[in-house]
Every structure is written in C-alpha cells, then in structure tokens.
Design goal:
The protein is of the alpha+beta class. It is built from 13 helices and six strands. The chain has helices at residues 19-44, 48-59, 65-70, 73-95, 101-109, 114-123, 146-156, 181-185, 191-209, 260-263, 269-289, 306-323, 327-353; strands spanning 9-11, 14-16, 214-218, 232-240, 243-252, 292-299. The strands form two sheets. Strands 3-4-5-6 form a four-stranded mixed β-sheet. A two-stranded antiparallel sheet has the order 1-2. A hairpin with a 2-residue loop joins strand 1 (9-11) and strand 2 (14-16). Helix 9 runs antiparallel to helix 13 (327-353). The radius of gyration is 24 Å and the shape is globular.
Length: 366
C-alpha cells in the first residue's frame, strides 16, 4: 500500500486535505466542464429546448455531484459556489432569460407568497416536470419552437412573463399578471378549448394503442336514452371488467383565487377540488347509465389528480402488455407527451396575450 507524506489525498475521485488542494482539484473539474457549458450557449441560439435538457442532465450538478457529496463542504464551498454561477450564466445565455439574484432565488426555493407556494408545490408534484425530459421530435409533435420554449421556462420558474402587467391582448379589461395566471385561464381566443382537445386526443390515442375501445365526444349519439346527455370527453366501452368508463378532462390553475390558499398549503389540492366538482356534476347521470365517472384533472403546471394518476397507471399497464415494454417506460412516455402538450398550449396562450406572433399561426392550428 502506498503511503502519503502529505495530508492531501484523492480518495475514489474526491479530494480530501487542505482547502487550497481541494479548491485546486475542483477548479480543474470546473475548467473541464467549461468547454461543454460554452458549447451549450452556442446550441441555445439554435435550439434552447435541447440545450436545456443537456444542461440539466449532463452539464450542471452532474459534473460535480461526486465531489459535492464526498468532500466536506468547508473544503469545497467556494469552488462549488463558483460552479453554480457558471451554470447560472450558461442557463441565462442559452435560454436568453435574464435572471436577477431575486428571481434566481425565487426560481429555486421561494416560499414567500401564496402564489409562489402554490406554484412550487404544483411543479414539484410527481410527473409535473416530465416535459423537461422529453427528447424533442418535431415529427412526433414533441418539440417547442424557441419562443414557446423561452416563455415556458420563464412561466415554469415563476419569472415575470409580462413586465408591467399590461392588459390582455384579447380582453383588455383584464391585466396580465406576472405569474401568468390570467393568460392560462383566459376563455377568449379559443386556446383553452384547444388545450383541452389536444390533451384529450393524447389520452384517446393512447387508449387506441392499448387496444381499448374508446370514442371522443361520445354519448349523445349512442342511443335514444342518451339523446339529452352531454357528450363524454372520452367514452371507453371496455375499461374495467367490461364496464364502460367516462373520462372527463379539465385543466385548473392552482393560482386561481378559488384554490390558491389551500394550494399554497397542500400539493394537488386544486386538482382534488376539481375532481369533487366533476363528480358532483356527473356522478348521478353516469351511475344511471352504468358508466364509471373518472375525472382527468390537470393543474396548469402539470400536476395530475389522483384519479387521473390511477387511470394513467392502468392505461400504461395495458399498453405495456400490448407493446411488451416496461411499464415504467410507458408511464414516463405518457406523462412526457401529456405535459409537453399542456406546457406548449400554456406558452402559446401567454405569447398571444402579450401580443407576440406565433410561428405556426393561430393557436388552434397547432
């Protein structure tokens, strides 16, 4: 066994010893990471969505995670802070988003206001961030254009999406709030309906891939007794033990004044309230028709209600069996597609109400 005559050691890739020695070691790691970070800045000018994925998965904390967990903090703190600043500068440049000290702190852990609490609880819910891991593919509809991506990131991080709170471009009597609440709930322009329909279509397509017989907007044309029945978003005729199920999809914003107080205390509370409202409105009629009522409630930041989570788990099981794929992979893919669809619609709604033009024309065409 080799003996060391100094207090400075590299143990399993982590420096242990004097502060200067540890700092020098970590500085060399930072220098090695700088090449990648510089490349990500250049990539961001072409495709900020891919640049962000690579920064999160390859260029950020992952570069120094072993050192951060193995070396005593007192020996590495200054260099780790310096690396944090490098990552922050890379994020700012590749996403073309200005991050002040206060906004950067808020984006990470602010719990000062109810709106911040509600947003942070929602974005940290299971699967809410699935859209950030989706590999961009325009051919599969799994990509954001640069304007959409920049707006989505600002909105997701709680940065100001409408400086000065100007009036909404579609309903001037309402101001645009910094966190985007009005834009993602505004009823004018048709984008709320478009968002709903696109989410419905993702669920419907997944049902068909899993060989579940399902129809969109079904109900009124299925028989005389249903003539006055409001069509279901999706009617699955063989959901469980041969019993039909009705999927009723809706999107709610946890920053809505109706929900914000409780949403700032309990994650998913806005979705729970919406599920109860859907059952109150539909349960009696569904029971009369022999249907199982299943509300599919999404919070605007991507958190899904418990009944939606259960339904998606069952749907993923069917699809995994059908395609001979691991269920975990199918679940990740399903939430990734759903939440990217949701975030894209929200970003386009924010852009429209700020008076920005969209690459592909009106939101209803996307």
């Amino acid at each position: 066994m080799n003996k060391s005559c100094t207090p400075n050691l590299i143990i399993l890739g982590a420096p242990i010893g004097e502060v200067a020695f540890c700092s020098s070691f970590i500085a060399s790691k930072r220098a090695a990471a700088s090449t990648l970070l510089s490349s990500l800045v250049k990539l961001g000018s072409c495709d900020p969505q891919i640049a962000l994925i690579l920064l999160c998965m390859c260029g950020g904390f992952t570069k120094l995670v072993h050192v951060a967990r193995s070396t005593p903090p007192s020996l590495a703190l200054d260099e780790l802070h310096a690396f944090d600043e490098q990552v922050r500068c890379t994020f700012t440049e590749c996403q073309a988003i200005d991050t002040t000290d206060s906004s950067w702190m808020q984006a990470q852990l602010s719990l000062k206001f109810w709106a911040d609490k509600a947003r942070l609880l929602s974005v940290s819910s299971p699967h809410a961030s699935a859209w950030l891991s989706v590999v961009p593919s325009p051919g599969l509809g799994l990509s954001l254009d640069p304007n959409e991506h920049q707006m989505a990131i600002k909105w997701w991080l709680g940065l100001n999406t409408s400086p000065g709170s100007p009036p909404c471009a579609l309903c001037p009597e309402h101001p645009l709030y910094p966190l985007g609440h009005h834009a993602v709930t505004c009823k004018r322009g048709g984008d709320a309906i478009s968002r709903h329909n696109k989410l419905r279509d993702v669920v419907l397509q997944t049902c068909h891939r899993a060989c579940i017989s399902a129809k969109a907007e079904a109900g009124s044309g299925l028989g005389h007794e249903l003539r006055n029945t409001r069509p279901a978003d999706i009617l699955a005729s063989n959901w469980l033990c041969g019993k039909p199920a009705v999927f009723d999809l809706t999107v709610v914003c946890p920053l809505n004044p109706t929900f914000i107080s409780e949403a700032g205390r309990t994650a998913g509370s806005a979705a729970v309230a919406a599920e109860l409202r859907k059952h109150s409105a539909n349960y009696a009629k569904c029971s009369e028709l022999g249907w199982t009522c299943i509300p599919l409630v999404a919070e605007s930041y991507g958190a899904w209600g418990s009944e939606a989570v259960q339904a998606f788990s069952r749907l993923a099981s069917y699809l995994a069996t059908r395609t001979n794929s691991p269920k975990s992979k199918v679940v990740c893919s399903l939430y990734g597609r759903l939440n990217l669809t949701l975030v894209r619609a929200n970003a386009r709604a924010l852009l429209l109400r700020c008076g920005c033009s969209l690459q592909e024309g009106d939101i209803s065409s996307s």
